[in-house]
Amino acid sequence: MSKRKQHAPEFKAKVALEALKGAQTVAELASRFGVHPTMSHSWKKAPEIDEEQVKELHAQIGELAVANDFLARKLKPWGVT
C-alpha cells in the first residue's frame, strides 16, 4: 500500500491558477500535472470570507490608524518621527 503524495503549496497554487484560467479541462490539467481531477477541484476552491470578521478587522485598522496619527502629532514637537 502506497502513501499519499504530499504536494507543496506552490504546486497546489500553480494547478489551481491553471484550473481557474479555464484554458484546459480539469482532466487535461490532471494528466499534465499528474494529480487526480478531484484534487484540482478542491485546490481551486477559495476559502469563504467571514464578513463579520472582515468588519471587525476594518474597525480595528481604523482604531489603530487614529491612534497612530494621534501619537505622530504628539511626538512631532520632540522631533521624533
TrEMBL record:
Cross-referenced InterPro entries: Transposase_8, Trp_repressor/repl_initiator
Biological process terms in GO annotation: DNA transposition
Stated name of the protein: Transposase
One Gene Ontology MF term: sequence-specific DNA binding
Domain of life from the UniProt record: Bacteria
Region forming the signal peptide: none
